[in-house]
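hiii so my PI (J.) wants the whole complex modelled not just the main chain, which honestly fair. so below is everything: four entries, each one labled with what it is. i double checked the lines twice but i was tired so who knows lol
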Amino acid sequence: MSTNEDRLVQSDDPEHPANLIPSLCAKFWTLGWVTGTGGGASIRDDDHVYIAPSGVQKELMKAEDLYVLSLPETLKRHNGEGPIRPSSRVYVRSPSRFKPSQCTPLFLSAFTRRGARCCIHTHSPHAVLVTLILEQAGESEFRINNIEQIKGFARGYPHAEVGNLGYHDTLRIPVIENTAHEEDLTEFLEEAMDKYPDAYAVLVRRHGVYVWGNSVEQAKGQCESLDYLFQIAVEMRKLAIPWESDIKPTVPKNSLKGQ
Amino acid sequence: MSTNEDRLVQSDDPEHPANLIPSLCAKFWTLGWVTGTGGGASIRDDDHVYIAPSGVQKELMKAEDLYVLSLPETLKRHNGEGPIRPSSRVYVRSPSRFKPSQCTPLFLSAFTRRGARCCIHTHSPHAVLVTLILEQAGESEFRINNIEQIKGFARGYPHAEVGNLGYHDTLRIPVIENTAHEEDLTEFLEEAMDKYPDAYAVLVRRHGVYVWGNSVEQAKGQCESLDYLFQIAVEMRKLAIPWESDIKPTVPKNSLKGQ
Amino acid sequence: MSTNEDRLVQSDDPEHPANLIPSLCAKFWTLGWVTGTGGGASIRDDDHVYIAPSGVQKELMKAEDLYVLSLPETLKRHNGEGPIRPSSRVYVRSPSRFKPSQCTPLFLSAFTRRGARCCIHTHSPHAVLVTLILEQAGESEFRINNIEQIKGFARGYPHAEVGNLGYHDTLRIPVIENTAHEEDLTEFLEEAMDKYPDAYAVLVRRHGVYVWGNSVEQAKGQCESLDYLFQIAVEMRKLAIPWESDIKPTVPKNSLKGQ
Amino acid sequence: MSTNEDRLVQSDDPEHPANLIPSLCAKFWTLGWVTGTGGGASIRDDDHVYIAPSGVQKELMKAEDLYVLSLPETLKRHNGEGPIRPSSRVYVRSPSRFKPSQCTPLFLSAFTRRGARCCIHTHSPHAVLVTLILEQAGESEFRINNIEQIKGFARGYPHAEVGNLGYHDTLRIPVIENTAHEEDLTEFLEEAMDKYPDAYAVLVRRHGVYVWGNSVEQAKGQCESLDYLFQIAVEMRKLAIPWESDIKPTVPKNSLKGQ
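here's the output for the full assembly
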């Protein structure tokens, strides 16, 4: 007989967070984003936060491997400023085989500071290479414009209703320095969120990227679009093509827009 | 009970357009062509045009997600010159979850101006990189010759019966500049179609490619062949090998051709 | 009721040539070897030669799409020197939907001149790039040594019993120039076979590669090993590492070999 | 009726070594690690050592294709110093279709000298390219630091309890020279194990890599993490970014670590 804890992750619905996280992570594994148990994903479903555990083979993860955290109870205990301390976290489900993910406080930042519904963390080689290229140039911000896929990003978190970025807009993703302990990234992630109120993603130098969204679909779509842009950016670098350019808009005689 | 609208996309036949579009798009997703909900595909089946909606995860798309447009009724309303305006489009099926694809007028151009049966739009990184390499050289035409895969293209749309391009022929694909609004590409796509009456594809700078065909198989085959050529072209560039070359035909003493 | 022709390709055995060719080609499609209906494969089973047709989507091919040719009857009609002319070929099964593959005479050369059981033709981008790199150097032979995967090749066709190449051996693959008509490659392929009696593969400039073997497993294994070497060779070129090197053998104090 | 030998590889449990080796190898094939029958894997289950045979297509391997060796009986016969000679090996299961893997003595070294439970051997192109880049620099050690994925490695074999490497630690993987006969690598592998008591992996120049672990999961995870690092290292080389760097730790005002 299943316990109450187990029932939290038992559902026939493929859209249930406990089924979605494993299916997403299996897909991400084939893309090279969560190799060697790296990376992870988390979904918030009302008061519950579902989180992939630490050290699990992401393409083999099962619903029963997931942690579930109570967000209201955790916030009640936290009752303060700064990142949510491990001691404040209230788990309503803790699989005995695993340990909680070191990404947990970073996922919680996306949920509490941005009202996100889903947060994805990848170790994508393209993301890491972009942070290395930027490091050589002494930069802490990835900027790219005039690539169609930029439209895959919402314009800004606080005003999601204003729609997505346009082709000529510059996508800006902050880069934070990596820390020895992953959870210690939280403070810097939150600083970057404050400094870039529009951003849906933060790159971590020599580590990977955190991407979130107002829905699982948006988080996944933005994560895919971003990885696509990182991939193209690395190739552009090899071909000595700059990431930013000044392109004059092309306008037809009779625009169909809005007709 | 299914409505009439639903019946348009319900079939057990895997070759039915409503089943083909999702299976094609799932395949294209694995190739990196339609990542982050980018790209799309459309099939014309007599009077009906089936179109993947905007913003759908292409590898998860279902038949029920598709729009279906009546081509004769749309043309009746259009009743004029230039791209078909959104207000002229007559949908016989509109899934409530989604919005119509911005690619719709471009797909319609392929169907009405070229009599195509299928049109595919990808954001393939290889295609985008080729347009960037050409941009650096100030060019608006991709040209490649003396690569076997060129034979994967029909010789020219108006005279499909003349067969495919030969090994020594030069494949020419026009590049149009990207516009802020995807539907505004239509005017330029049609101009390129007029200027290149033979072309089965148009590259869009910093965006991707549109490829069509007289059948789903031809459109898909040409799209695959083109992406293969773009991939090789990018690698050739890295290896400083020119895309065009002047190669003297090699002829055997006794040709088997036509025997 | 199935006809005699159909029975040739109907079997529940996954190792039957009519089932193996589609499963191999579906796998090759995922590797990018037979994209856009390019490439192909053929298996000889005693007197019958099974051949993928022209213009088929290789990942979707079915047993019923295959041609079957009678080798003894074809040779009886041929009754002469040089490549087997199309008019000499005797098909015992011809699917009406398709046309015979242009690769047919090349596959037959592998079967008749080398006693091969299986011949694979790919348009692998790695193979094409290697021929382009060699062309720039004015060379018509691919040579590589001191890479472990070279051991994946049999030492020489006439003396298969002597085993595979060693680590320090140099693998030599001739490159023939491409012809406008694929079947016209046959004469040059046979010349290369004569000149390189040991070779199990021939590269075709700007086109791809033909690889054969005494069994399906050997042909597939050698094709995979060769593509791996081509892939590494292209990367070595980008890193300015030569394909051939003079390396002194490393020998342990007490060899385990043969003990 | 199955023989005793067959029963050793018959189990419904997907975690049984006889099922795990084929499923792992099929996965590795899709990653390009065991192409062309190259590479292999072995699992120790108490007294039994399960080994993929020589010359098998790794993605098609079945449980029934596996060799099973008795470790205690083999060690009894060995009764001496240095690598375990082929004549000392006691097989409790020998499939007649195949020959024992040349990797056998190397796998046994990992099991006897390191107490490993699983050892994986790949011909990964990334691994080979890294050994070639190091060769050009006259080096026999791969060193990389300040990349998050380094945390995917245990700190050292003798003291597994001390946990994994940290972000700022330098991962060091020895490179041994390749030998004409794979089994002759054993002496050099064991030398490298002695010289690098912490290492969980040894690179073989122009050949590939051996990776092991205290469990199947650890061996697989470390193999994936290592290949990821090799892949990034090759790209870093192309972008002229050094593999080692001197980075000052970033520390937050209030570390969450250990709270």
